[in-house]
Amino acid sequence: MSGASTPKPASLPDGAVPAVTHSWFDNLQGLVFGVVMVSFGISLLKALGLITGQAAGIAFLISYETGLDFSLVFLVVNLPFYILAFMRLSLGFTLRSLACVIAISALTGVAPQLFRYEHVEPFSGAIVAGFCIGIGLIGLFRHGASGGGVGILAYYVQERTGFRAGWLQFALDAVLFATAAFLLDGRAVLVSMVGAAALNLFVAFNHRRDWYIAR
What we know:
YitT, 9 helices, 0% strand, mainly alpha, UPF0750_membrane, membrane, transmembrane helix, globular
């Protein structure tokens, strides 16, 4: 009848969002996008001498303090979290996340040969990097993977409890930046915190199970 509203499917409760089934190509292109965006954001932060949160932030601190290659440190720092992924999530999620972290490590390693940042205002660069990493992480989350490290823990907690991944990452990053304050220049830490805030707020507000569910 004209003017009649379309009824909801009987199988879906109020407020529920129907799951989206992805093809292998859907997932592949989403993961590639996520890897590229995260890698670009990390390379920008590295060029500015800044850090971010999560496992990448830990890798940045170790790399700056020891002189070790960031790409290698980032890969090693992420390895323990795959125990959680394998035990509590799924083998597919674990393997996809591992592949993404290896790809991110490789891309950030070659980024200086691909991009040159002649002039970037630090606060603007940190915010842009935060948004790039944030949207990249959402791309990985929505296609059954993560950027490793704390992202795996945040994904697990959100899937099991509904507590948003971005808020958990925010809390853990606070501990990381408190540590960084003793190791890095104060202004670099402040600028890095602005970028991390942009990243985590973006993820917290845009990665929600009631907006988008993929299987």
